[in-house]
Amino acid sequence: MQYTRLKNGHEIPLIGFGTYQIDDPAQAPHIFQQALALGYRLLDTAAFYNNEEYVGQALRQSGLKRKEVFLSSKVWKDQHGYDATLNAFDASLRKLGTDYLDLYLIHQPAEKNLETWQALETLYKEGRVKAIGVSNFQPADLEELVQQGDIIPMIDQVEYHPLYQQKALRAYCRRLDIKLQAYSPADARGSVTTAAYGQTSRQISQNTGTNCAALDYTKRCNPPAQSSQPGPHERKFRRI
Question: Which residue blocks in 97-224 are alpha helix, DSSP H?
Fold first, then answer.
């Protein structure tokens, strides 16, 4: 597994396993264990995903040490605000069965972005989380935190792929050394891509010279199939 380094020196795997929409208690723990067995070392979850406890269960049953797995979670918009965010973080730790997170993000912008960010800054200063950032933020959203916060976000997790390159956001983040972490990096809407352009995202990447897998940003890849049986995502990982 390859890693990249955040501005504070903390390392994060270049490729992660996204857990969105995997919340079936009969299957989720096995799927996450399977991901870890295949070599994934970043598990990306969120309060909104309703699966943090299954991620924690999978980690405990994997035989891996806590420090060997990068755990990332997010605070949902209905838990924004300073005190509410601190409480949400504690709830995530309990569900995950850990005493710290590697990364904690504001899931999406809302009314209390600054108060919520100040709570993340407190958690970071206390050493309860190794890195902090945001998700789905645009430059205007980030600017409030940059100008009024004590710490510049270390990551912005956004949709990013050949058909949605977010060039203005990318330029802004590069200037401030904010890592862009891509979800749907190969374009989850593959059928739409093919129908509209007669090409897959991979072909468009090759033709335009925009290879998402080669970009200097961390990635978050959701599994193409939610199955407890070995599937295409296993073969795909072995080729990485």
Answer: 113-125, 139-148, 167-175, 190-197, 201-208
Phi, psi of 78 (to 5 degrees): -80, 0
- Whether residue 7 lies inside any domain: the answer is no
Please report the sign of the dihedral spanned by the C-alpha atoms of residue 186, residue 188, residue 190, residue 192: negative
How far apart CA 185 and CA 192 sit, in angstroms, is 15
Domain that holds residue 172: 12-239
Please state, in angstroms and rounded to a whole number, the distance separating the CA atoms of residues 146 and 126.
Answer: 20
59-102 confidence digits (pLDDT tens)? 999 999 999 999 999 999 999 999 999 999 999 999 999 999 99
- Total tally of structural domains belonging to the chain: 1
**Is 16:55 a contact under the CB 8 Å cutoff?**
no
The yes-or-no answer on residue 104 being catalytic is: no
pTM: 0.84
Q: Which of 40, 49, 54, 217 is catalytic?
A: 49
